[in-house]
Amino acid sequence: MTMLSKITNESINDNLKMRFENADIYTYIGNVLISVNPFKDLGIYTPQVLKSYENKNRMELAPHVYAIAEGAFRNMIAYSEDQCVIISGESGAGKTEAAKKIMEYIAAVSGGNSSSIKEIKDMVLATNPLLESFGCAKTLRNNNSSRHGKYLEIQFNAGGEPVGAMITNYLLEKNRVVGQIQNERNFHIFYQFTKSASDEYRQNFGISGPENFLYTSKAGCLD
Length: 223
Description:
Layout: H1 9-21, E1 26-29, E2 32-35, H2 47-52, H3 65-79, H4 95-109, H5 115-135, E3 136-137, E4 145-146, E5 149-156, E6 162-170, H6 188-196, H7 199-205, H8 214-217
Antiparallel strand pairs: 1-2, 3-4, 5-6
């Protein structure tokens, strides 16, 4: 993007549109990666693609979220300094997916073959569906909209092996629990629980479908 002869809002948008239409959803502006959500699978997150970015300089291959993760991970090892990746954008931009891809990359390329290291990697990746259940909801613009901010810290030892992680959630949209605008949903967890509760839970706790609870049905969206 910095190689454009003229930097204006129009030229930037035209460049992003041209790349998007060519299935290039990632674009660099200096050290910043711009991502345009394609809302479909482009086949760019396969194990083979992930492997191709390992130990590569950011400018050697096409722009990709894996390149950002690779740069942060290698800089941490080379300089023994903390690294931070900030993901921002409007609803539906793909922030949640980008965060998951970075975590997947770090888990794949970081060292450690012991059972304890593998367990930590699995635990870090397993936080994604749990956080999505309690912190994401269906909105008019996005079926899996994050209604919270999230700070994930992964701790590594001197050998670049993950040894722990800490997640801090902030700015959770708590008012969504008691009310949603028309045709939006409460947090996913309420529908997952009411739709898939076991017979034992239904009998012991009076659980039934989401259509029978005010907090999950009054906005008129159950699916």
